[in-house]
Write a structure and sequence with these properties.
This protein is mainly α. The chain is built from eleven helices and no strands. The longest helix has 33 residues.
Length: 285
């Protein structure tokens, strides 16, 4: 929602929409009762009206659960809109628990309701809608030198394959897929014991860096050979965008691989300061 928009007219419009479309309240009620064995017994929780209106208020103002609870408890206007009135406002965990019980179809209907109310008031045109998504935790590997070099080989090769597919080519002449060799060198370094690192680590790193530099040089040749391709040479418009995007990715990864290879203190064709990537305990001469 645009900044500087008064909240009261929008809340009034949303309240009128909710009163006119009672089916969305029933949809929220079904979601809250879904999976309960005896819904009519137990402690009294939030009503469907309170859940619906509180969720709309949270989406409009982009508040977190704690701030939502505090604002509703402190403001008479928000108490009236959320149907709490003089009732005690529960803790923020209650809002979080009930909001999570809503199905995607119900959330989609609520979003459509808010957008329609904003369009009717002239606050938005409804052509674009921006919402915050939930952050999802994922695993990433520790950025060691050997895994970073393996990432360079893997991503550059994948980007070149995308570029070849965009140009309707099976492969580029002179570009070899070295992902298997790079993965084996990376795993070899990862599995070395402390005693093995003293005598075998240097040669393994030399081999891995050589593979990475070979892939970088081949990717740069591919970029030079495809740089003359203009819009007329490409088959369809989406392929032009794919070619441009792939060229950008390959160029960026080539520059990153140069910095990472130089960080291993190996004599490289492209001298680069060591501070460009996380430092390593490996010292090679």
């Amino acid at each position: 929602m645009r900044q500087g928009v008064r909240l009261e007219p929008l809340l009034q419009a949303i309240s009128d929409f909710i009163d006119e479309h009672r089916e969305i309240v029933e949809q929220v009620r079904r979601d809250l009762l879904r999976g309960l064995r005896r819904p009519k017994t137990g402690r009294r929780g939030l009503t469907p009206q309170q859940v619906l209106r509180s969720l709309v208020l949270k989406r409009v103002k982009n508040w977190d659960y704690r701030e939502l609870r505090e604002r509703i408890a402190d403001g008479m206007t928000l108490r009236q809109f959320t149907d709490f009135h003089c009732q005690p406002v529960p803790k923020h965990q209650a809002f979080h628990r009930d909001f999570n019980r809503l199905t995607p179809d119900t959330l989609r209907a609520i979003n459509d309701l808010v957008v329609q109310a904003a369009v009717d008031l002239g606050l938005e045109d409804g052509s674009k809608l921006r919402v915050d998504t939930t952050v999802v935790e994922t695993d990433i590997h520790h950025p060691t030198d050997n895994t970073l070099l393996w990432d360079v080989v893997r991503v550059i090769t994948r980007s070149v394959c995308y570029l070849a597919a965009a140009l309707n080519l099976r492969r580029f002449k002179g570009f070899c897929d070295r992902r298997r060799a790079a993965r084996r060198r990376m795993q070899e370094i990862q599995r070395m014991t402390t005693r093995q690192r003293q005598g075998q680590q240097r040669e393994a790193y030399r081999s891995l860096i050589g593979i990475a530099e070979e892939v970088v040089e081949s990717a740069q040749v591919v970029l030079q050979n495809t740089s003359t391709a203009n819009g007329k040479d490409l088959p369809i418009w989406p392929s032009r965008a794919s070619v441009t995007r792939s060229r950008t990715i390959v160029t960026w990864e080539a520059a990153s691989s140069i910095r990472r290879a130089a960080a291993c203190s190996m004599a490289s064709k492209w001298p680069t300061p060591r501070r460009s990537i996380p430092s390593s305990n490996l010292i090679l001469t």
